[in-house]
Amino acid sequence: MEPIVVNNNFKSEEYFINMGPQHPATHGVLRLLLTIDGEIIKKVEPDLGYIHRSIEKMCERDSYQQIVHLTDRMDYLSSNINNEAVCLAVENALQLEVPERVKVVRTIIGELTRIASHTLWWGVTGMDVGAFTTFFYGFRDREMINDIFEETCGARLTMNYNIPGGLMFDIHPNFVKRTKEFVAHFKTKLPEYDALLTNNVIFQHRTKGVGVLTKEDAISFGASGPVGRASGYSCDVRVHHPYSALDKVKFKEAIRTEGDTFARYKVRIQEMWESLSIIEQLIDNIPEGDHKVATNAVIKLPKGEFYQRVETARGELGVYIISTGTKNAHRVKFRSPGFSNLSLLNHISVGSKIGDLVAIMATLDLVIPDIDR
Amino acid sequence: MLLSITKNIHEWLFSLMPENVASIVEMTIIAIIYLTGFAVAGLFLVLMERRIAAWFQLRRGPNRVGFHGILQTIADALKLVSKELTGTIKADKFLYNLAPYFVIITALLALSVLPFTQDFQAFDINIGILFLIAISSIGVIGILLAGWSSNNKFSLIGAMRSGVQTISYELSVSLSLLTIVLMTGTLQLSEIVEVQKNGWLIVQGHIPAVIAFMIYMIAGTAETNRTPFDLVEAESELGAGFHTEYSGMKFAYFFLAEFINMFIIASIATTVFFGAWLSPFGITESIPLLGIFWFLAKTFVIVFLMMWFRWSFPRLRIDQILTLEWKYLLPINLVNLVVMAVIVWLGLTIQF
Amino acid sequence: MSKITKISKETTLSSTALSVGSPPPSGELEGASSSPKGRLGGAFMTNEALQNIITTWIPELEFSEAESQFLNITVKPELLHELMLQLKNNNETKFDYLFCLSGVDWGAELGVVYHLESTEYRHTIVVKVKTADRENPTFDTVCDIWRTAEFHEREVFDFFGIKFTNHPNLKRLFLTDEWSGFPLRKDYVDEINMIVK
Fold first, then answer.
1. Which residues of chain A are within 8 Å of residue B239 when distances are taken between CB atoms?
2. Which chain A residue has the Cα nearest residue C146?
3. Is the ipTM here above 0.90?
């Protein structure tokens, strides 16, 4: 009888998939070139540039007041913090002391922006793992913040509220009242978030132990924001290099040590609580005073190099301005948090499933215009 | 009353024409009734799903077209009918066009054996449950064909997931129904209903029946590819899964079939666990026509349950789905079957 | 599902208690990051201290604190990798966080600016490397030292045409492969798409 020969050398075949540029999970025009074996991811290669607008080049052409408006279009979910970063850089360069009122208002609006960004993130994270209802809960609360912004400066998303030297207008008389209303409202709604998603068994299974990033890798990859903090790496710029009124408030830096998707999720939930606490500490005593100091119509920075770090909702944003003493910058570089956080995607998602990749991307919280500056 | 109407029509038809022609005409009439019911039920379920989703999601849902949006889905259907049928260039045309019919016809076939009320059952076959299980497994072929023939990798991944998932969960559906069949001693649906005149089977079989019902609901949800088991479509992962490349009416078939399948899964649960058209405590026993009301009421409660799952749970991962089935549901099911057998053997069932 | 039992063991949230108001430096604030205070001489270093220690490794470096809030080191391209390796690995400096890597066109020279921070001691430093060769500017890669440099160097390559030797995957990142020219250079001309004021 002939022996039956079994071919043990059979190799499973890898194949290639284009995820994006139009894909629901990439949250924008990010294209991922995936090499997949069945359901298991072998390689992720991001392909960028679909909405690159060369903001850095435009910054070399425009005046410093104009630059501020361009930064809105980078990370549009934390537009106010981006504006603040450029304003702070310019103010530091001019050695301009802005009024206390400006600092406090900037911080409050910055934290509101952070909450707005995180609520949106929470909604889409739920959607990415398949729970559609979270999206609407997140947007319900974000809407209140957007209404406050609209009343304050007329814009809901790209705010342009900061100018070098202070704020464009003074705050609306209703600002304090409405912010307090929001804080009270959101304190009752945040536990709902836990009830709906955090404590869900399926969600925990989908996220725990997925996409683990060690602390060493987090630092090496330049991870910042909640991504870095979830790996036990204290990287909050608000703590280490406080700006505006952040040196007057007490808050806990949310740090977890697991480094997995669930840890990144929990860090952001915790950050929302901390942001609420920061707002509460400041909202009752906004100092009286001017909302800006006068600057020259044409701002000329002294010759030199200026670097300003701020903590956006996604992590550390750096504004690096090289000035030659003229009204235009010689070079402006934005160190965007999303860019560094994206670079570690391949590292943490190799070996996981397609569904995991979506969960990982959700908690990296990528905003594509922030990457494609 | 209903009985006399159908009987009268039957006799009238047979008196008018020869026997063969009469039966063909009768079959056609029944088919038309079922097809109409099928379409109406599908459209209503879509509307119901959307309204319930809106209710869970702090929205209003469709409420403009017709009274409280009742005509919304009809408008949607008209839109889908009038849409261009697109497709990929290198698709396997024959299979690509065939796939939607597989899915929709199997859904329709399963409808024929359901006992809506006393004697209102198109096809009372003596292996009713077996027929249902067999028919519902054919639907997956349509999904596999759709994914395979679309010439789209995302579709293919979706189809493969569907295959692996449906075949796995088929086991749990069958075994949980088998647990109940132990009590009835028959596969014929009308007789299963008859048995339940002494109490619904979920009450008769108490603990093992409740376990079987839970397993049936989990596996049934997986069979219909709905969240938390909607990996087949998995919007955020695969775009739209196996029906990515379908448009217009072909897409509508898949869409409709999904909802009809949900209705069928709920109907089977109603028939097998909750006494089909029997009213609770026999309160409307004297009016058989109300059986339809009770049947649909029970079914829609279960449908609502499935919609509740969908709008609250995240989606499982493919390996987790398989572990859930093979490592948890299947062993529990087998033990449950033995427990039920012992209970039936010792006569420990609850009878009224 | 094998992990089902582990769910209840949710780790509690550890947080850094923070007392702000004092200036941020030194290992004091590092409550949560496993900062071993007082491990062989590791501590926040002032700019002078940094300058002193770095000079002992490589004498021929230019230091400058003018016109910048950080200590600036200008290094020759051939010494770049050696310096970077020391900055990262030396126990006293431990610059393990490359928080910004920018290409700069100074007109006559092209160069790269590295902003470094030590996550343990929280001192910062800026390293600059320049070359007058505009045709074929080449530096050593640092992505074996900080992995974040891989993407940042690709960006610099994309916009400034600066090549990095030993880079594992040096190709255009944002622009298409067939793009000609390097847009962020000062001498880049695009008459159609660029509005020059």
1. 23-24
2. A220
3. no
